[in-house]
Structures are given as structure tokens and as C-alpha cells.
Amino acid sequence: xxxxxxxxxxxxxxxxxxxxxxxxxxxxxxxxxxxxxxxxxxxxxxxxxxxxxxxxxxxxxxxxxxxxxxxxxxxxxxxxxxxxxxxxxxxxxxxxxxxxxxxxxxxxxxxxxxxxxxxxxxxxxxxxxxxxxxxxxxxxxxxxxxxxxxxxxxxxxxxxxxxxxxxxxxxxxxxxxxxxxxxxxxxxxxxxxxxxxxxxxxxxxxxxxxxxxxxxxxxxxxxxxxxxxxxxxxxxxxxxxxxxxxxxxxxxxxxxxxxxxxxxxxxxxxxxxx
Amino acid sequence: xxxxxxxxxxxxxxxxxxxxxxxxxxxxxxxxxxxxxxxxxxxxxxxxxxxxxxxxxxxxxxxxxxxxxxxxxxxxxxxxxxxxxxxxxxxx
Lengths: 274, 92
Prior knowledge:
The complex is a heterodimer. By secondary structure, chain A is α+β, with helices and mostly antiparallel strands. Chain A has 8 helices and 15 strands. Chain A has a 5-stranded antiparallel β-sheet with strand order 11-12-13-14-15. Chain A has a 4-stranded antiparallel β-sheet with strand order 1-2-10-9, with no helix packed on it. Mean pLDDT of chain A is 59; it is low at 1-32 and 43-122. The N and C termini of chain A lie far apart (61 Å). Chain B is α+β, with helices and mostly antiparallel strands. Chain B contains 2 helices and 7 strands; from the N terminus they run ββαβαββββ. The radius of gyration of chain B is 13 Å and the shape is globular.
């Protein structure tokens, strides 16, 4: 059998249930099921959109499980008979879809009475990651750091100066993302944010990637400036006085580079930063 | 003819020094950017002097000067096309 849990193997029969609640079901291919990641309920989705519920009462692990299952399926007529009828609103709670085993004509499901199933955990993790990716793709997220319209004439002029410093393309990215990436002579990159934002130091690795190395807090001594003025100040310091800026700033270590990562940084900076 | 100093009433964080031979255009356009700007025409020594005075005063206050596409400046360069001065920074 290509798929089985533990000591069990898939039984190719219509339906069978053991004393401890474990059961095997073989149903036609036009059935799929989903698992509620919270309750562990398995929700069969019929080809015509009808739902059948197979429920595990995981709070009562030692005794018989409260399972409502497909007791028989008449393939010729597609008539369904339920062992008990807990067919309710479970579909509202389902979290993900899962397929166990498929043969040419049937799906075979092992419906375990076990409360914890490693395959379920994997599915939860996979779905959690998918949800994170979906969130990152959402427009609200993509534009959450977007720089809005300039609030003052000073801010407007500061942005014009920034545009002449970094070029039109990078300026548009600044408006969209809310930060500027500037590379220093040492090879490190700096993520510069407007206003009182921290400067994130990105350390190069041997593979040419960058990781967050430090955060620098460096602010204009004068208060009440337009936010983009702080960006201009930091960019000019990075370009022309990088070492002085690192020395001046309040530094918070975020990560320690390994020996291999250190190769990506020029020797002078390593000495000066040390 | 005098140099033009576009300075608001508020404190300056970034100043842009612009050398131009067409002063009227810069002033009219008012688009030279930066928080404030100082514009001079190098054909007029009095304008250079005035811009230099502003420069020196700010340097004395701790401001740093940079050529936009060049290096850090220690002294005022009247031939520089554009200079940006930034206020002193402190660790937060």
C-alpha cells in the first residue's frame, strides 16, 4: 500500500470500524474530504457538494469515539447511508484539504481514532505558511509602508532633493516601500527609513546575500524636520562618512556573522567596527 | 545683485547650495529642493561671499557639507555646482 499510518494499512472495503474507533473507508473518486485543523473532524465532500462528517471525539481517547461515518455507499445508485447523522455546520470550520490515497477508481481513507496525527500537523504548518504568503501578497500589506503625499512644502522640497540624490527609479521605490537601500563603501547595505526610523545594517555573506546584522539609531540633532530630511542625512553619511556614522550611532546587534560571512566585508571596516 | 537665501522661519536640517548662472530661473522655479536652499551666481563676488558666510556659520554649528555627487567638503567651494549641508547627527 502506498500510504498507511503506523501499523495500519488501508483496507479496501466499503466501510469497517474497529472497537477503538479506527476505521477504513473506501469511497468513490468523486468524494474528497477535508480536515478541521482544530477539532480533527474529517469532512467528506461529495461530488455533488453534499458533506458528510466523520467526527473524532479526541477528549475521550480511551473509549469509543463518537464517529459518524459513511456506513455504506451504493456506487450504482450513489445513495448514501450514514452510521449516525452528525452532518452539520462543520464545513464552516475546516482549515485545509487533504488527500490520503488514491487508486484508479477509489479514494481510501484511514480514519484514525488517534488524537494526534503527524500528517495533520504537517498540513497545519503548510497551511500556516500559505496564509503568511497570502498576507504578504495582499495589497494592504504591500502598501502599508507607502509614503503618502507630502504634508508640507519642506517635505516636498526634501523629497525633490532626495530624488536628485538617489535617482528617479529608487525614489519611486522609496515612495512605495517607505525606505531606501544604500550600499556603503564597506560592502554593507543600509536600510534607511524616514523620520525617527532605525537604520538596519545588512551584512553581506559569501553567497552574495545579506542578513540583518545591526540596527543603528541615528537622528538629526535638530528637531521638527520633515521626515525625508533624516533620510537625506543618513544617505549622505553612509556615502561619505560611513565609519563615523557607525561610531556615532546607538548600535543594537541583531545577529553575529559567521566566519564565512565575514569574508564579504572589507578588512578596513572590520577593523574599524571592532 | 544679491544672492538669494530661501530660508523659512523653522530650523534647517538640510540646506542645498546651488551655483547657477541663471539666478532668476532658480528662484522663480523654487524647485531646488532640500529643506532650504542658498543660491549664488559665481559671476558676482558678493553673492559668493554671502553664500560662504552662510556655509561657514553652519560649519561652525556642526553641519557637514557634501558635494552631491562627490565627497565631503571642508571649505566652501564657489565652483561647486551643488552642495548639500546636513545638520549634526546624534545617536538615538
